[in-house]
Design brief:
Blueprint lengths: L3 E6 L4 H11 L4 E7 L8 E5 L5 H8 L6 E4 L8 H18 L7 E5 L3 H4 L26 H13 L4 E7 L2 E2 L9 H15 L9 H5 L1 E2 L2 E2 H13 L6 E5 L5 E2 H12 L13 H4 L3 H12 L6 H4 L2 H8 L10 H6 L7 H14 L5
Parallel strand pairs: 1-2, 1-4, 2-3, 4-5, 5-6, 6-10, 7-9
Antiparallel strand pairs: 8-11
Helix pairs in contact: 1-8, 2-3, 3-5, 9-15
């Protein structure tokens, strides 16, 4: 059996870390994890490189013999024009550096903004749920579209591709820019330790509407499935856990895990970025009290991104029929995604 060489780009992030761990468990894979500040993972060769430094990147991945790329990273910029330029250049630089590699397949991880627009234009267009892969692109700038177009053009007669569109990703990673699960764990811990009301911080639509999430382990399984299933080549796929819920119900499930009461919903959003503005000294005291990992609370919990997800004025959930028709039949209960993450955060002494 020919050994596959997988390059996981963004291996320290919530998506990439879980992909790298899954690939490392496969006997026929050599796994390389690339990040600006890579984390050490069992069975993964760590590579430190900046995708914006073209020459250093080329040197870092030279002669690896990469056959498969799992692209799961991005850099947030001040506006979508800059998001398009910077994130498009990062992908271009990587593909340039791999021109002489025996590349077979590139997986690109994007997300729900494919269906409802960029951060700047979210909610400006008609949103049709459930999201289906054949829905047309929204008007306006979107760095996901830029990345797709780069991928499609470079793949012609060169390699196969797949695009994966998760909703809110729940999974273990620390210091990640888009990490609702860890953010809610930190928020619940602060509420419990300080007797602060555990109030749902989002919009009425999100509180009452239908939602779904994507377990990072589910995303990793779909990526591995896509590169090992011929029928899945050159396709875009939604990826979610496969169940649906309303946040007014899920909020209670999270409260149950932390053994706290749910505060009455005030009928409007109360953004965490504002609530937790002065959380640093509170968190530092919790860390000292319980002997936790000493981490900056604002890096551990990206309040802004959770606010972005939970403040939307429209429902967000995806249809999984296409994946199932193509043979991807994995399912995960969403309450388990949260409880597994919270248990791991406790085991790793991130929360008490």
């Amino acid at each position: 059996m020919t050994k596959k060489v997988g390059l996981v780009v963004g291996s320290s992030g919530i998506s990439g870390l879980n992909v790298a761990n899954l690939l490392a468990q496969q006997k026929d894979w050599t796994v390389c994890g690339l990040a600006r500040k890579p984390v050490e993972l069992d069975g993964v060769h760590s590579i430190a490189a900046d995708l914006l430094d073209k020459s250093a990147l080329a040197s870092a991945i030279k002669n690896l013999g990469v056959t498969h790329v799992f692209y799961a990273t991005w850099l947030r910029q001040e506006n979508e024009t800059q998001n398009c330029e910077v994130n498009g250049r990062m992908l271009t630089n990587l593909l340039d550096a791999l021109e002489d590699s025996p590349l077979e397949h590139v997986c690109l991880v994007t997300g729900g903004k494919n269906y409802f627009g960029s951060f700047e234009e979210s909610g400006n267009y008609e949103v049709i749920t459930p999201y289906r892969e054949e829905q047309p692109r929204k008007p306006g700038l979107n760095f996901y579209y830029v990345q797709e177009d780069i991928l499609f053009e470079r793949a012609k007669n060169n390699f196969k591709w797949s695009v994966h569109r998760p909703q809110t990703i729940i999974g273990y990673a620390l210091g990640n820019a888009m990490n609702m699960g860890v953010t809610l764990a930190v928020y619940a811990t602060i509420c419990k330790e300080t007797n602060r009301p555990f109030v749902f911080p989002g919009s009425p639509c999100q509180h009452n509407g239908v939602a779904d999430i994507t377990d990072a382990r589910m995303l990793a399984k779909q990526l591995l499935w896509a590169v090992t299933t011929p029928a899945a080549r050159n396709q875009a796929f939604n990826i979610t856990n496969g169940d649906l819920f309303r946040w007014n119900w899920m909020w209670q499930q999270i409260a149950n895990f932390f053994e706290i009461e749910v505060a009455p919903y005030p009928g409007h959003a109360t953004p965490l970025e504002e609530q937790m503005r002065d959380a640093a000294p509170v968190w530092d005291s919790i860390v000292a009290k319980h002997g936790l990992q000493p981490r900056n609370v604002h890096e551990l919990a990206p309040w802004w991104h959770t606010d972005s997800d939970l403040s939307r004025s429209f429902e967000t959930f995806s249809d999984m029929s296409k994946s199932r028709d193509f043979g991807f039949l994995e399912y995960r209960k969403s309450t388990t995604s949260f409880s597994d993450l919270f248990a791991q955060l406790r085991a790793e002494k991130v929360i008490p």
